[in-house]
Amino acid sequence: MTTSPAGSSTLAAGRGGMRGRRLLALGLLAAVVVAGLVVHGALPDVAATDIAGDALYAVAAYLAIVVVAPRLGPLVVGVIAAAWCVGVELFQLTGLPLAWGAVFTPAMLMFGTVFDPRDLAVYLVTVAIAAGVDASVRAVRRSRR
């Protein structure tokens, strides 16, 4: 462990950076969830709002992983988020999410209802964009140290 000119250790600075990353992701996650609820509940159910909802879901998955594991890099977070989104979409083929949503409406927000192959593309593209933005932000922060 090395010491910086200000007397703080590099390891401690790394922990603070992870705490900041987690807090930023948590704040962004809250905003994305609110946006998703607005898209789902207040806007007409058309293709554009469906795509927007899917994109917000993918970003929320990405951010939730950063909140839980802020030390993971963008590539790993992206792979996990994409796997989650694809897994949930494929799970819809079982019919269980639709049945659960009929009994407990909030389950639809987490698991969707009906499989749509377009959702897979939206998830993958959105997660790739989120990972790219995350990697760019991390690179800028590293360059400023």
From TrEMBL:
What superkingdom heads the lineage? Bacteria
What UniProt keywords apply to this chain's record, in alphabetical order?
Answer: Membrane, Transmembrane, Transmembrane helix
Would the keyword Transmembrane turn up in this protein's UniProt record?
yes
Residue ranges annotated as transmembrane are: 23-43, 55-86, 98-115, 121-140
- Which InterPro entries does its entry note? DUF2809 (IPR021257)
Say if the entry is tagged with keyword Protein transport. no
Question: What name does the UniProt record give this protein?
Answer: DUF2809 domain-containing protein
Organism field: Microbacterium arthrosphaerae
